[in-house]
Structure formats: C-alpha cells, structure tokens
Design brief:
Helices cover about 35% and strands about 30% of the residues. The chain contains nine helices and 16 strands. Strands 14-13-12-15-16 form a five-stranded antiparallel sheet, with helices on both faces. It has a four-stranded parallel sheet with strand order 2-1-6-7, with helices on both faces. A four-stranded antiparallel sheet has the order 8-11-9-10, covered by helices on one side. It starts with a strand and ends with a helix. The structure holds adenosine-5'-triphosphate and magnesium ion. Magnesium ion binds next to loops. This is 30S ribosomal protein S6--L-glutamate ligase.
C-alpha cells in the first residue's frame, strides 16, 4: 500500500514511529509536508502537487496537522478525500475538533459528562460568569492555550474576577470552568483507534500542581480504565467523528468528565507509558479500510 503521512516535521517522534510501523508491514510510506502542497481545483479531476510532482497512487493518508496550520492542512486532507484516498482523520472531524466551543457542544449533546463550562466573548459581566461556573475556586483557560500554559486556578472570587478582567483587556478569549478538585492534579488520556481503546495512561502533576501536563513536569503511568471511563472515551471519539483520538478526562465524584478530544494525539507519551505499539495499531486500521 502507498501511505502518506501529513506532517510538518519528519523528525517528530510520532511521525518517525508511524514511518517505522508502516515499513515494518511492508508499505511504501512517505512524509509529506502539507504546508508545501499545492492544490489544483477544476471541474472534477482533483490534484495535489508536492515539490513539483503530482501526488497520485496514494492509498491512505495519516494527517498529523498542527493547530497552527489547521486551515490549510484541512484543505489538503479534503483534497485527498476528493481523490478518494482513505484518511485516518476526516477533514470535517479535524476542523470540528479544533474549535473548543463547538467540541464541547457536540460532547454535551452526546450526553457526556463535562466540567461545567462558561464561554465569554469579552464579556463585562465578570461576576455572573464566575457564578455560572459554580463560584470560586474556578479554572480559567485561554482559548488558544496549550501544554498547560494559560490554564489558571483562581482560588477566590476576587482573583477570578481580576484575572478575567485582565484577559478581557488583552482581548484574549477565555473559558471559565468548574474546578474538579477531586481529580487531584491528575487526568487520564485514552488513546482510541477505530472504536477501540488501544492504550490509556494517567498523568499526575508534580507536587502542588493542579495541571497534569507532562510539559509542566507531570508524570505518566499506564492505567486500566473503568468500564464507565472506557464507554465515555469511545462515545466521545465517536461523537467527534474521529477514527484516531486522544480523549482527556478528569476522574470526578460524578464519574468521568471529558476535558478535550485531541485529533492529532502524540504517540511518545502513550507508547512510553504503556509499552504498546500504537503506531502499529494505526497502520492496521488503514489495512482494514483500504
Ligand atoms: N476543570 C478542571 N478541574 C481540574 N483540573 C483541571 C481542569 N481543567 C484542566 N485541569 C488540569 O489542567 C491541565 C491542563 O488543562 P487543559 O488540558 O484543559 O489545557 P491544555 O493542556 O493547556 O490544553 P490542551 O489540552 O488543549 O493542549 C489538565 O490536564 C488538568 O490536569
Ligand atoms: Mg491538556
């Protein structure tokens, strides 16, 4: 089979592991930088050019599109779809997953547990927003944040109000969310491929830190999900329309609460924590579908 991995950086762990796993199963595999693809659109006959060559004979693509290039990356994925190439992540699902507000609405409609969340569009009603989120302590998140940066725990109403006001002044959009104290500075990541959990880990923040991000000094260990957690994770991936998903959940007194569903989940943390060959599961997913 001819498999192309859409990735801006061929040196990334995830990209390299996917190349390795595809080769091991005797496929032709190539890393394509989606940002350097040209798309040709006319009546029918969709074509993609990469470094001056026409890309044909592709059987499947694995999109690994960074958040900063969602717009163009998605257009390239869509073009492959028009060429009837199988994709492990559909363009529609990719776009949906990158919109945090829309994602939470989709998950809520699917009946999944979520931390109560308030979105604000530079609102001046700071007091009401904090009330809506259940009062202090609350979590305040920058909409564009990642790796735990821009996630703040405001212990008191006064602190919450001044942080929200400060962000409003900077014209930075934020989410205000109920603080799930009993999660104990940990979250769980379920890695899903084709309707199955292929690995799960618990990430624990360092001492005194409520954020479990590995980039913030957290540590990851393999865990076995409860039936309830597994069901929630699978349902979340399905609601988002994702064949491959990293579902992040908080363990709360009222069961698992979905934090986020990642459409390009990294392989390094999960393969290291679980010792599983997840890249291989992804290649096998392609083999079943092409
Ligand atoms: N409502 C909450 N209650 C308790 N802890 C939370 C809550 N929201 C987030 N956390 C903790 O903070 C960490 C970072 O939050 P989150 O995952 O939402 O942001 P991020 O990692 O910066 O963004 P992204 O996951 O989109 O890259 C979580 O992994 C979790 O440990
Ligand atoms: Mg996170």
């Amino acid at each position: 089979m001819n498999i192309k991995i859409l990735s801006a950086n061929s040196h990334l762990y995830s990209t390299q592991r996917l190349v390795e796993a595809a080769k091991k199963r005797k496929h032709d595999v190539e890393v394509i930088n989606h940002a350097k693809c040209d798309i040709v659109i006319e009546k029918k006959n969709p074509v993609i050019y990469y470094k001056g060559h026409k890309l044909d004979h592709t059987d499947a693509i694995i999109p690994r599109i960074g958040a900063s290039v969602t717009f163009y990356g998605t257009a390239v994925v869509r073009q492959f779809e028009m060429m009837r190439v199988f994709t492990t992540t559909e363009s529609q699902a990719l776009v949906r997953s990158r919109d945090k507000l829309r994602s939470l609405q989709v998950l809520s409609r699917a009946g999944l547990g979520l931390p109560k969340t308030v979105f604000t569009n530079y609102s001046k009603n700071v007091k009401e927003i904090v009330d809506q989120a259940g009062g202090a302590p609350v979590i305040i998140k920058l909409l564009e944040g990642t790796q735990g940066i821009g996630v703040i725990l405001a212990e008191t109403r006064k602190a919450a109000e001044s942080v929200i006001e400060a962000f409003n002044n900077l014209q930075a959009r934020v989410i205000v969310q109920e603080f799930i104290k009993e999660a104990g500075g940990a979250d769980i990541r379920a890695f899903i491929v084709d309707g199955q959990v292929v690995g799960a880990m618990k990430r624990q923040g360092k001492e005194g830190e409520f954020r479990s991000n590995l980039h913030r000094g957290g540590t990851a260990t393999v865990i076995k999900l409860s039936d309830e957690e597994e069901t929630a994770a699978l349902k979340a991936a399905k609601a988002m329309g994702l064949g491959i998903a990293g579902v992040d959940m908080l363990q709360s007194a009222r069961g698992p609460l979905i934090l986020e569903v990642n459409s390009s989940p990294g392989l390094e943390g999960i393969e290291t924590a679980t010792g599983k060959d997840i890249a291989n599961s992804i290649i096998k997913y392609i083999e079943r579908n092409v």
